[in-house]
Amino acid sequence: MERLGGGIMDNCIFCKIINGSIPSDFVYEDEKVVAFKDISPQAPVHILIIPKEHIESVDDIDETNSHIIGHIFEVAAKLANEMGLEKGYRIVNNCKEHGGQSVNHIHFHLLGGRQLLWPAG
Ligand code: 5GP
Ligand code: ZN
Fold first, then answer.
1. How would DSSP label each residue in 81-117?
2. Is the CB of 64 under 6 A from ligand 1?
3. Are strands 45-51 and 108-112 parallel, antiparallel or unpaired?
4. Is the C-beta atom of 103 inside 6 A of ligand 1?
5. Cα–Cα distance between 20 and 61 in angstroms, integer?
6. To pair with 19 at 20 to 30 A between CA atoms, which of 6, 25, 26, 99?
7. What's the pLDDT tens digit per position in 26-85?
8. Could you give the residue numbers annotated as active site?
9. Best mutation site among 36, 38, 46, 109 for ligand 1 pocket (most ligand atoms within 8 Å of CB)
10. pLDDT confidence tier of residue 2, bands split at 50, 70 and 90
11. Which ligand has the nearest atom to the CA of 93?
12. Does the predicted model carry a pTM greater than 0.85?
């Protein structure tokens, strides 16, 4: 994959969602992140929050980019509040193959609106 301007990768579906070439339902956008509805929702609320910068996974987080992750959690709490998830919610990250990551652009699932089960499979 080639790195294009602004930290965007060609061939990455989430970079394409960020630049609008794949349509999606944005629920939030700022200079660092976007949030949109998951195409295959697993709960009444299922939002993906992703950085605009292409970072592959949690395994690539270091002192240069960890501030983005803190920001993602701020946005998650704000969206959860706006979406009426006062009873609680879950934020999930799947990292690499054994973690079940299927899109290699780091993303955090915000899930809520029903009782979520534990442990994960
Ligand atoms: P992962 O399995 O990597 O943790 O999560 C990837 C998520 O991206 C899945 O929940 C999947 O439904 C969602 N997804 C994959 N392709 C698209 C797409 O084109 N649009 C949207 N909105 N969600 C997608
Ligand atoms: Zn990407």
1. HHTT-TT-EEEE---HHHHT--SSS--EEEEESSPPP
2. no
3. antiparallel
4. yes
5. 25
6. 99
7. 999 999 999 999 999 999 999 999 999 999 999 999 999 999 999 999 999 999 999 999
8. 107
9. 38
10. low
11. 1
12. yes
Q: Which two tokens stand for residue 26?
A: 């944005």
Cβ of residue 77 lying under 6 Å from some atom of ligand 1: no
21 lines ligand 1 (CB under 6 A): no
Query: What b/e string do you get for 81-109 counting C-beta neighbours within 10 Å, with b at 16 or more?
Result: eebebeeebebeebeeeeeebeebbbbbb
CA of 87 to the centre of ligand 2 (A): 32
Q: Give yes or no for residue 16 having a pLDDT over 70.
A: yes
Cα 53 to ligand 2 centre (Å): 7
- The Å distance, Cα 113 to ligand 2 centre, comes to 28
